[in-house]
Structure prediction request, 226 residues.
Amino acid sequence: TWPPNKTLFVLNVTPYCTEECLSRLLSSCGTIKTVELKEKSDHAESPKEAKSEFFHPKPVPGFQVAYVVFQKPSGVSAALILKGPLLVSMESHPVKSRIHKWVREYEESVLDPEALRVEVDTFMEAYDKKIAEEETKAKEEEGVPDEEGWVKVTRRDRRPVLPQTEAASLRVLEREKRKRACKELLNFYAWQHRGTKMEHLAQLHKKFEDKQRIELMRAQHKFRPY
Prediction:
């Protein structure tokens, strides 16, 4: 958190006032370490967190709040008794507005490809290092019970889940059907034995009818196999 005895909390900061402008206005009170503008107050957030130059939410235009951290507590005391209007725009430090402000915002929106590549590479190196450390730690703790005797099951221990598609479901059903057919006892019951005999007789009867039909066609000179 911000040091309470060295931080000045400023409300209703105009959108035209930047961090550099606010630092200039309060520089007479003492040496300023950091100035940070935010959309709303957040006392739980630390100003020492690294901010990305490229990847950050777009600020909402409107009045903001500021956290001004002085080097000494006396800077806050001097700022609280500061009198007189503080001019944001002066001849020596003019504030760009309207079309000049839009041109400045457009120029700031154009990214430097090389700087962007460096930041992305740095982030990915840190991320890969973090993932490698987590995997190494998970391998070391794999199968090792904790103090209470419990073994943690990680995602690496589980088998990959097959995609639930119609073709995959049909293959699973066909595989289960073949397994049941292999396990089933043939001709164990009397009705199974009778059914097998009837199927065999039906096949013989069909073959005999086909043979009679071929002989009849051959006698009528209608059989031409080629």
